[in-house]
């Protein structure tokens, strides 16, 4: 009962990839931009290595390698690499993890051949979506960030 009055620890969320952090509403996909799938943020990647933004358990690895989900006691997120990249059927993606694996923030999860994916005409903007209804406070909008660098938090 008295836990009601305790301050919950703020949980930091890292960037899954090096690049420019952008507002989710500016993503060129209405399902993400409208937050229909959940709130979050996006990154325009400048690197091929995607890391876990939090400590947790890999809850899902899409067979195509373009997306993965992570959960822990505080949140549930999906990292979605690119727009419509599911159409590539896994070409250009290599996953380092399996469902059920434990990861630490900053651990490599996926390698994506960003140059190849762009050359095929796909937008590589990467979304980090909170599928549990959490609303992150994004702290470094329009800044260049490194993979694993804290860029948002939830209370």
Can you describe this structure?
By secondary structure, this protein is mostly beta strands. Helices cover 6% and strands 39% of the residues. The protein contains two helices and 14 strands. The strands form three sheets. An eight-stranded antiparallel beta sheet has the order 9-5-6-7-11-3-2-13, with no helix packed on it. A three-stranded antiparallel beta sheet has the order 1-14-12, with no helix packed on it. A three-stranded antiparallel beta sheet has the order 4-10-8, with no helix packed on it. It is globular and about 45 Å long. The two termini are 19 Å apart. This is PTS glucose transporter subunit IIA. One of its GO terms (biological process) is phosphoenolpyruvate-dependent sugar phosphotransferase system.
Task: Give keywords.
three-stranded antiparallel sheet, 2 helices, 155 residues, single chain, mainly beta
Strand order of the largest sheet: 9-5-6-7-11-3-2-13
Main sheet makeup: 8 strands, antiparallel
Q: Estimate nothing, just give the exact number of structural domains.
A: 1
At the third CATH level, what is the topology name?
A: Glucose Permease (Domain IIA)
Our count of helices gives 2
Pfam families: PTS_EIIA_1 (PF00358)
Domain PTS EIIA type-1: 29-132
GO biological process, one term: phosphoenolpyruvate-dependent sugar phosphotransferase system
Keywords: Kinase, Phosphotransferase system, Sugar transport, Transferase, Transport
